[in-house]
């Protein structure tokens, strides 16, 4: 059995963490041979609740769980971690956009960037889930200059999973048989869920999703808006934001980053190098493949006029969010 790796989850007393911790501790993320030592960070008033979570983790009797450290101190939480799930942040309520959380949440990611810089392994892989996830990831990276910026990512995997699931239901195939759906841009209502490269297996043969569905108005209309607004639809129904599906997506993202994707495309928010004419130095979601722990943007895709408009609109929003976040972080 390998040596345990240290993994931190922030917002560990919250909703998403309640589903996520089991997945990490049971081996679903880092594999069935990799023991984990969990660091659980939350704020001081939540330490009582966190104690209950620690009790429940013990009561799961999980063979891969090597230890648990609950704490309200970010530097203690980030000490020597190889993977960081940054979940802790305020969730939105009905009627809000995710960027309305920026002023409240971005300072958390400034502080945690500084603490990661001091305490984490320099090869730590950081996944930001707390909203607005892309801009929080950018700020976190800016305040952790000793860690490569490639190691900071934002979660758009939930959007990818939603998009894949919508297309599978429309076509009438299992979700695993739909591939190469892309989420471009921001984890917000300007994101572009793009099915133009997607393929599905129907009757044993792989075909283009556009050809199978044969309804351009749907693929550019209802499909896009359903995925863009799915988070709000869950909040309207549950009166709380998605947690089960968010935890599953966080597990998918980190598993693929650690263990690789082979030829699968997955969407991750990464610091943009300007690929596909997107603005540089914002955290933009691209299709990537992962080999040996390193992600690489899928190259050479054709961008239609419609896609160009969508990529530009979500890029513009990210540039605006970045400016607002930098202003908030000045104080
Ligand atoms: N990127 C994505 O696809 C998704 C992102 N989210 C976002 O994830 C975040 C967490 O959502 P939930 O777990 O439902 O919220 P929650 O309110 O149930 O839990 C958040 C936890 O974070 C803690 N927290 C607050 N400030 C902290 C700090 N400075 N350090 C450590 N912990 C801190 C809170 O005390 C609380 O226990 C929200 O911002 C939500 O909008 C939610 C779903 C999907
Ligand atoms: O919509 C929200 O506020 C929570 C979230 O990010 C999602 O469900 O995608």
UniProtKB/TrEMBL annotation:
Entry's EC annotation: 1.1.1.37
Residues involved in NAD(+) binding: 42, 105, 129-131
Keywords attached to this entry: NAD, Oxidoreductase, Tricarboxylic acid cycle
Residues reported in the UniProt entry to bind substrate: 92, 98, 131, 162
GO MF entries: L-malate dehydrogenase (NAD+) activity
Keyword hit for Ion transport: no
SUPFAM superfamilies named in the record: LDH C-terminal domain-like, NAD(P)-binding Rossmann-fold domains
InterPro entries per the UniProt record, alphabetical: L-lactate/malate_DH (IPR001557), Lactate/malate_DH_C (IPR022383), Lactate/malate_DH_N (IPR001236), Lactate_DH/Glyco_Ohase_4_C (IPR015955), Malate_DH_AS (IPR001252), Malate_DH_NAD-dep_euk (IPR011274), Malate_DH_type2 (IPR010945), NAD(P)-bd_dom_sf (IPR036291)
All residue ranges annotated as the Lactate/malate dehydrogenase N-terminal domain in the record: 6-152
BP terms from Gene Ontology: malate metabolic process; tricarboxylic acid cycle
Domain of life: Eukaryota
DNA damage keyword on record: no
Start and end residues of each Lactate/malate dehydrogenase C-terminal domain: 156-326
Active site: 187 (proton acceptor)
Record's catalysed reaction(s): (S)-malate + NAD(+) = oxaloacetate + NADH + H(+)
Membership in a protein family: Belongs to the LDH/MDH superfamily. MDH type 2 family.
Protein's name in the database: Malate dehydrogenase
Organism: Bombyx mandarina
């Amino acid at each position: 059995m390998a040596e345990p790796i240290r993994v931190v989850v922030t917002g560990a007393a919250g909703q998403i963490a309640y589903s996520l911790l089991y997945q990490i501790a049971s081996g679903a993320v880092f594999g069935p041979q990799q023991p984990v030592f969990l660091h659980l960070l939350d704020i001081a008033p939540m330490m009582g609740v966190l104690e209950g979570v620690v009790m429940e983790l013990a009561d799961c009797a999980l063979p891969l769980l090597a230890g648990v450290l609950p704490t309200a101190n970010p530097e203690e939480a980030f000490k020597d971690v190889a993977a960081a799930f940054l979940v802790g942040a305020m969730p939105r309520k009905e009627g809000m956009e995710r960027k309305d959380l920026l002023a409240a949440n971005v300072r958390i990611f400034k502080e945690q960037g500084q603490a990661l810089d001091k305490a984490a392994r320099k090869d730590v892989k950081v996944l930001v889930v707390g909203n607005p996830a892309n801009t929080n990831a950018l700020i976190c990276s800016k305040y952790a200059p000793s860690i490569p910026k490639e190691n900071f990512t934002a979660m758009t995997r939930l959007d990818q999973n939603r998009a894949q699931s919508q297309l599978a239901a429309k076509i009438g195939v299992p979700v695993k048989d739909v591939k190469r759906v892309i989420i471009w841009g921001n984890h917000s209502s300007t994101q572009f869920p793009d099915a133009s490269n997607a393929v599905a297996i129907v009757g044993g043969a792989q075909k283009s999703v556009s050809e199978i569905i044969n309804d351009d108005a749907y693929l550019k209309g209802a499909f896009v808006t359903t995925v863009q607004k799915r988070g709000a639809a869950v909040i309207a129904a549950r009166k709380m934001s998605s947690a089960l599906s968010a935890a599953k997506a966080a597990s998918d993202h980190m598993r693929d980053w650690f263990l690789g994707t082979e030829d699968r495309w997955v969407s991750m928010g990464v610091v943009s190098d300007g690929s596909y004419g997107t603005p540089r130095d914002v955290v933009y979601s691209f299709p990537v493949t992962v080999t040996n722990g390193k992600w690489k943007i899928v190259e050479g895709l054709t961008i239609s006029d419609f896609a160009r408009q969508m990529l530009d609109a979500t890029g513009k929003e990210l540039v605006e969010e970045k400016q607002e976040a930098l202003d908030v972080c000045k104080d």
